[in-house]
Amino acid sequence: MTYALTDAALSALLANAAGDELLRVRRESGLEGKELGKAGDAAAQALLAGLLAEHRPDDAVLSEEAKDSEARLSADRVWIIDPLDGTREYSEGRADWAVHIALWERGELTLGAVGIPGEELVLVSDTVAPAPAPADGAQISLAVSRSRPPAVTEPVREALDASLLPMGSAGVKIAAVVRGQVDAYVHAGGQYQWDSAAPVAVARAAGLHTSRIDGSPLVYNDADPYLPDLVVCRPELAPRILAAIAENTDGDS
Ligand SMILES: Nc1ncnc2c1ncn2[C@@H]1O[C@H](COP(=O)(O)O)[C@@H](OP(=O)(O)O)[C@H]1O
Ligand SMILES: [Mg+2]
């Protein structure tokens, strides 16, 4: 089937549309806190489900906000989406939250778009610039969850003599590596495929290292959507980061 919009153009459209909707809900709903987060999750999910059904009726979808279906396991094309990554930060009125749109085709991520509406930014894997090189002699910096930093953070920080930059949303943290604001993002202890699929596709296109914390490949559209840990970093840092993790964890912290 031929579509008027390319997959890349559609992914950017979806990220922009969901971002606008999330900003509108936050501005107009009068809700706060957890209720605002729930309303945002639901509004962005409804909008994305509608647009995907309209533009790609034959594709499967794996979304944080929709019931999972076995249909995606035999599908050739699966959109892996997180309508609102960083729900906590969104509901607190902050800017560090994101919309994730990824496309998986026959075993591999082929496209990702990460919208950061609070910064009026959408990064798409087919147009993203290579991650800029750090300044000579600059201290290495790590993006880390602001609300639940994993235990693995400290040994990695120590091994690299790095500074920590806490922020919300996996997408925002991976985008920070892509944009050269930090050198690495290390996470462990729990996450799902939708939390990382889109930003990992963008990071790979920008030339960054992406893997599990034991160095094995990140696998998407797996039957179990749980994907609890990952490393996204400048490629030259990967050996040191993976070694620090291997020396200091039993692989699951
Ligand atoms: N230990 C854990 N278990 C499950 N999900 C986790 C997690 N730590 C982080 N996440 C998810 O990863 C995303 C980024 O988290 P953080 O901002 O703390 O780094 C959030 O996604 P959602 O906001 O889509 O739920 C959060 O729920
Ligand atoms: Mg998420």
TrEMBL record:
This is 3'(2'),5-bisphosphonucleoside 3'(2')-phosphohydrolase. One of its GO terms (biological process) is sulfate assimilation. InterPro entries: CysQ/Inositol_MonoPase, Inositol_monoP_metal-BS, Inositol_monophosphatase-like. Its cofactor is Mg(2+). Signal peptide: none annotated. It comes from Demequina mangrovi. The keyword 4Fe-4S does not apply. Pfam families: Inositol_P. It catalyses: adenosine 3',5'-bisphosphate + H2O = AMP + phosphate. Mg(2+) binds at E64, D82, L84, D85, D195. PROSITE patterns: IMP_1 (PS00629). Keywords: Magnesium, Metal-binding. GO terms for molecular function: 3'(2'),5'-bisphosphate nucleotidase activity; metal ion binding.
